[in-house]
Amino acid sequence: MTVAPEDVDLSTVDLSDRDWWARPAQERHAALDRLRAEQPFAFFAEPDLPGIPAGPGYHAVTRYADLEAISSQPALFCSGRGAVSMQDVPAELHEFYGSLISMDDPRHAKIRRIVSKTFTPRMLERTLDSVRAVVDDVLARARATAEANGGVVDVVTDLAAPIPLRVICDMMGVPEEDRPGVLARSNVILSGGDPDLIEDDDPLTAFLTAGMEMAALMERLAAERVADPRDDLTTALVRSEVDGERLTHQEIASFFILLLVAGNETTRNAISQGLLALSEWPQERARWAADPSLDRTAVEEVVRWVSPVTWMRRTATRDGEVGGHRFTAGEKFLLFYNAANRDPAVFADPQRFDVGRDPNPHVGFGSKGPHFCLGAHLARRELQVTFRAVFDQLPDLEVTGPPDRLRSSFVNGLKHLPARLTGVR
Amino acid sequence: MRVGADRERCVGSGQCELLAPDVFEVGDDGAVRLLQEDPADDGAVRDAVQQCPTGALSLGDAP
């Protein structure tokens, strides 16, 4: 089934509607193509959020050049009024859940530099063996699961979720027994209110409870690290100082949640939807599997193709003009990375999945500006190791059904992706 | 070719270290450190300067 941009009725497209984001990828990209070509600063109303007064709405930025212009001028387009919600939620809420993401320089840079060394290519080189060991173990368990279930596996729960969960929990020093709880709460925090991920409560209560439970875990680990420092990120957070002052408990908890949630969800969705893309483009799969020298470009293409984080918000700090659009102070812009990543002004044949694409200046890790993804090098490494290991150890992995998509505008996620190992009898 | 770095602007994203590891390193304080100030003119160094997310790197003529 192909959906051409001209088939889309733009009057039915509401980027604020999380149900719209569960629609098939082709249909969503066709709509984003139309918006980019015809209404590059399309205006949308904000969805209702209980207890929050309705806000003025936002502009959806879909052209690569406009997105880069906004992202690279953080003094004019700030993050400190909230980068991860369309609505203007109370400051203490967006600071707690956004941490660095919803903070501006100079404090953002100072806090980020506490951990930036840990996420550099040189430092991560040292953890390569442990990432390989995690991936090998997860893949072996997935094969055992398939053997016990007539060959059936779930790409999300058996492969894509456990790999980044274990890697980031190892780096943070989260004990084994706490990890299932971290996964469940991380899912709730980024559920976008998807009812499948929220069991009893209303979405807001579930969201706040998950945050408090993660903060309680951090308090417990932090107390242990004060008495008994270790070589992990939690110890680094507890001992760190900015301008001669220790971070507050709230700042540490919020940073801790950010690292765990961001480390988990994004890489998971790149793995699951990268494998989905390979099943839809079998020639690209064969080409990449046969040639490890393509690992670098192929992983960048997976990140462009999937765009695991759909948008971040910026808010104008004063009046101005960008890309021919005049704006006033307080206007909100949502930067749609998935749309910019398929802008034909930058990418030749953008709707083609090409594991050799080079150059590939995608914005899947964010565009120019201080908020470029902290975990980009870690994610690249996890993805390179994972896909190569899948080709070697699960060559018979075959996607068998349609993906069960997360109903969220913010995270491009899958809840399930049915598959089987055809070698299992 | 002379390379400059603004350590206040730098957030330690490590893009430069990825592209030109002989010239750039993220230091223990989380900001960029120059391993050479006058590296040979090299496409990778130019890419690193151009692609720095925060624009913290600059190129100038060698003295």
From TrEMBL, chain A:
Q: Which SUPFAM superfamilies match?
A: Cytochrome P450
**Which residue ranges run through the membrane?**
none
User: Signal sequence span per UniProt?
Assistant: none
Keyword set for this entry?
Heme, Iron, Metal-binding, Monooxygenase, Oxidoreductase
The protein's superkingdom reads Bacteria
Write down the Pfam families for this protein, in alphabetical order: p450
Q: Name one GO molecular function term.
A: cholest-4-en-3-one 26-monooxygenase activity
Instruction: Extract the CDD domains matched here.
Output: CYP142-like
| GO process terms (BP) | cholesterol catabolic process
Return the InterPro entries for the record: Cyt_P450, Cyt_P450_B, Cyt_P450_sf
Provide the family line.
Answer: Belongs to the cytochrome P450 family.
Descriptive protein name: Cytochrome P450
Q: Which organism is it from?
A: Geodermatophilus telluris
Upper taxonomic classification of the species?
Answer: Bacteria, Bacillati, Actinomycetota, Actinomycetes, Geodermatophilales
Automatic annotation (TrEMBL), chain B:
Output the superkingdom of the source species.
Bacteria
Residues in 4Fe-4S ferredoxin-type domain copies:
1-29
Traced from the root, the source organism's taxonomic lineage reads: Bacteria, Bacillati, Actinomycetota, Actinomycetes, Geodermatophilales
Record bears the keyword ATP-binding: no
Q: Which UniProt keywords apply?
A: 3Fe-4S, Electron transport, Iron, Iron-sulfur, Metal-binding, Transport
Report a single Gene Ontology molecular function: 3 iron, 4 sulfur cluster binding
- The name this protein goes by in its record: Ferredoxin
Q: Write down the SUPFAM superfamilies for this protein, in alphabetical order.
A: 4Fe-4S ferredoxins (SSF54862)
Q: Which cofactor does it need?
A: [3Fe-4S] cluster
Protein purpose? Ferredoxins are iron-sulfur proteins that transfer electrons in a wide variety of metabolic reactions.
